[in-house]
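Q: A reviewer asked whether we had any structural model of the full assembly, not just the individual parts. We don't, so I'm hoping you can provide one. Inputs are below.
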Amino acid sequence: MLVYTIRRLLVTIPLLIVSSFIVFVMEASTGNPLDAYVGHNPPYSAAFLHAEKIRLHLDQPMVERYVNWLIGILHGDWGPSVVDRHGVIREQLFQRLGVTVRLIFVAMVLAVVLAIIVGVISAVKQYSFLDYTFTFTGFLFLSLPVFWFAILLKEGGIWLNTNVFGQRVFDTIGEASIPPPHGFGSVLLDDFGHLVLPTIVLAMTSYAAWSRFQRGSMLEVLGSDYIRLARAKGLSRRRVMVRHALRTALIPLTTVTALDIASILGGAVITETIFQWHGMGEYLLSGIRNHDVYPVAGWLLVSAAFVILFNLLADLLYAVLDPRIRYE
Amino acid sequence: MSERSDLLHDTSSSGQTVVLGGGPAGPGRGDREFEVAERSQWRMARRRFFRHRLAALSLFVFILLALVAFVTPYFWKWKYNSDPSFDFSVSPSWSHPFGTDDTGNDMFAFVLRGTQQSLKIALFIALFSTGVGAVYGAVSGFYKGWTDSLLMRFADVVLTLPIYVVAAVLGANVGGGTWWLIGLIVGGLLWAYVARVVRGTVLSLREKDYVEAARALGASDWRIISRHLLPNAMGVIIVNATVLMATGILTETALSFIGFGVQPPDTSLGLLVNQGQTAVFTRPWLFWIPGIFIIVIVLTVNFIGDGLRDAFDPQQTRVRS
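A: Here is a predicted structure for the entire assembly that you could use as a starting point for your response.
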C-alpha cells in the first residue's frame, strides 16, 4: 500500500504542473492588470507604471513567467499580487483556507450526520410514507440553486433581526464582527451568529445527494445474503442493522463525502460571495476580477492539491474499511 | 432496489398480473414465476419509465414549461428587448402577470426569456458533454493500456480546471456571454465526468462474448464501439445526460448570478435572481418567480432522471409475469 501511495503521489506532480500551466496562461493572456490604472485622474506617472510592470513580471515572456513562478514556490515565494501590494500570497492563501475550513466544518459534519440518518431510515422503511417524504425533500434540496437559497436565508435573517428580535441576532456579513467584541463569551456568540445562516445553506444543499447515496448503499446491503444469515442466526433486528448493515453501508459514503469536501475546500464560492466571507472562493473571484495571475494560480495549486490528496485518502480509506480491496 | 420498486408498482398499479411476451402461450406458460420478456430494450424502458408516476408527471410539466417559454413570447406584447412600460415596480396583475421591475420591464417577458436561455444552455451542455464524453470514454475503455492512461490523465487535467476561471476568461473576453459559448465552456469541463463513467462501463462490456463474436466476424474497432459498446452503455449514458442537464442549469444560473454567464441586456434566470436579490420581501415577485422557475425545471429534470434510472437499470431484464 505504501508503494501504491507513493506511485499515486508521483503521478499527481505532472498533473498539477499541466493544470496550473493551463490556468496560468489562460489568466495571464486575457487581460492586462495595469489597464485598471489607465484613465485615472490624476494620471499615474510613467515611472510608476513601469515599476509595476517590472514588479508583476509583465516584461517577461509567458513561459518564463510561469517557470519562474514554479521555481519561486519551491523557495516559498508565491509571486506578487496586483491589488494586495504588500501582502504575501502564501500567507493570504493559508489564512483564507482557515476561514473556509471554519465555514464548512460544522456544515459538513451536520450534512454527513443528516445524510446517514435520513438515508438509513429511508432504506429500512422503503416505500413507506416516511421514505417518500424524505425522497421528495432530498430531491427538492438537490434542485435548489445555492445562490437563491443563500439570499433567501440572508434576507430572511435580516428581516427577523429588524421585525422580530429588534436586535442583530443573525449576522449576515463577513466571518466576524469588526471590531471584534470583548470577552471570550461574546466572541463565541459573535462567531456563532455569523456561522448559523451559511452553515444551514451548505449543510442543506450538501446532505441531499449524500442521503440518496446512503439510501442506495443501505438497500443494497440489506438485500444481501449475509444480512439474511445474521437474522436467521437469531440476532436481533437492531443488532443486525447497526453492527452488520450500517457498518458496511457506510463505506461508499466515505469516498463520496471525501471527494465533495475536497472540492468545497477550494471555496464555497457562492456562499462566501453572498455572506461576504473572505475565504478561498472569494480570493479566487477577486483574483479573476482583477486579472491577478499569481493569486489565481496559487489558489489552483492549493485547491487541486486538496482534491488529489482527498482522492487518494478516499481510495486508501476504502481499502482499510473494506478488506476485500487490496492495492498492490 | 429498483427491481423491488418495479414489483411494487406492478402490483399496486394494476392489481392483476401482466402477461408479457408476444407469441402464443405455450404449455406450462405462466407456471414459472418469472418470464424473460420478449421486448426490445426501448419498449421495456418506456413502460418502466411511465410506471414511475412522478417521472411521467415531471416529463409532462417540463415539456409544458418549455412550450410556454418558447411559444408564448410570440404572442406576448412585451418583449425582453423592447422598450419598458411606464408601470414601475407594480405587483403581478393581468397586464403584467409577473409584475414589473423598477425600470418598468415586464417580468413575464424576462422570466420567459430567462427560461429559454437556461433551457437552451442546459440542453447544449447535456448533449455536448454526453456526446463527447461517451465517445471519449468508450475509446479509452476499449483500447485500454497506454491509450487509456493517456486519455484518462488528460480527463483528470480537465477535471482540475476551475469553472469560474475558464468561464471568466473565455466568457468575458471572447464572446461576452452568448448562450452557446457558455454551454460550450461548461460542457467543455463536464464531459470528463461522463468519460470516466462510460469508460468504466465499457471496460466490463468489452469482455462480453458478443464483442468477441463481432470481432471474429471481422468487425472493425470503430464498428464494435459504435454498434455494440455504445448502444449497450446507452442506459448509463442517458441517465448521465439528465443528471448533467440538471447540473447544467444550476451551473449556468450560478455563473450568470456571479456575473460570468449571460450578460445584460440579454437575461437568464440566474441574472434575474441577482437583480431581484434585494427585493425578497419588498417586491417578492422579482426574487421568487425566477427562483421558483429554476427549482421547478431542475426538480422535473431530476425526477425524469430518476425515472430513466429505473427504466434502464440493467438488473431489470426480468419482468414479473
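A: Points you may want to mention in the reply: DSSP finds twelve helices and no strands in chain A. The two ends of chain A are 6 Å apart (CA to CA).
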